Amino acid sequence: MADLLRWPEAARVDRVIPKERLYTAGKVSSALKQRFVDEVQRARWAYKLGEESLRLAPGSFVTEIQVVVVELKGPNLDNSVLASIDKAIPSQVVFELRREDGLWVEQLMAAAYKLTGGRTKGTDYFRTGWIGSDRPRLPLPAALDMDGLYSQLLGRLLPHPMRPGETLSEALERMGQIRRLTREMAALEKRLHVEAQLNRRLELRRTLKQSALAMTELTRP
Question: How many whole angstroms separate alpha carbon 104 and alpha carbon 190?
Fold first, then answer.
């Protein structure tokens, strides 16, 4: 489980984002707008990470990173809501989701890989697990520029750690291969359970074994 990060005070913005602004900018459907109503208490532009606040040079495709805190009404938040907020903000975004139930408060970090121009690559949002608000936060990771910082931030959220020398794009491609292989293995398992012919069952088992070896290679540190 990744720890939450301690955002620098020099980057603090702390402004509530009106939901109506997100509706307009994100061009949300009526169903998605209802999700905002049902699941989001408020969204807050919490920090702006950039050259001015961090004294960190702009990268080739990342100049600023916005930290948006989303306070939830319920236990979770659908990724479609995060995607809508992302579309309304041109620069890269890291989310903190916050939920509470009287005696406790929990938070997590989430983000999707966002390309130049504000487009997210695919629809995958990587998340940490829920973390108690009393858990100490860690300082920002060291980086040479904003590209490097973004790679470090997003890399912390991946379900399988980045390998030494692996770029963010390479790590994301590996995560995609893992997801595809996981779906294929689940489909093979389902076919195996209903297959009656012995020769077909043996073939499915061989394919599953090969897929398991490939998964081990993809997920090794």
Answer: 40
